[in-house]
Design a protein that fits this description.
Elements: E1 2-8, E2 17-22, E3 27-31, E4 33-35, E5 38-39, E6 43-46, E7 51-57, E8 66-71, E9 76-80, E10 82-84, E11 87-88, E12 92-95
Antiparallel strand pairs: 1-2, 2-3, 3-6, 4-5, 7-8, 8-9, 9-12, 10-11
Protein name: VCBS repeat-containing protein
Pfam family, one: FG-GAP_3
Keywords: Signal
Length: 96
Amino acid sequence: MPYYVFAVDVNGDGKPDIIVVNYDSGNVGVLLNIANGTFAAQTTYSTGAGPFEAATADVNGDGKPDIIVANSNPNNVGVLLNIGNGTFAAQTTYST
């Protein structure tokens, strides 16, 4: 079930892409903006149980927005680094 949704340009093409936090599925989905209001199929990245909310910020200083996820079940924060072209590395978690 989608729990939280927001838009940000993750692949640097100037178009807002969609990021979806899928609470029940334990993942974050990225839908890249193709153009004219259409989006590519969702690519999902595992977060573990209970992702609750997410945000983006350039946490490693490479100029690309990374995804930061609050995970409710293990009570941690996950960071998915933006590799470029709209793809992300596997989540690294930090205890809270």
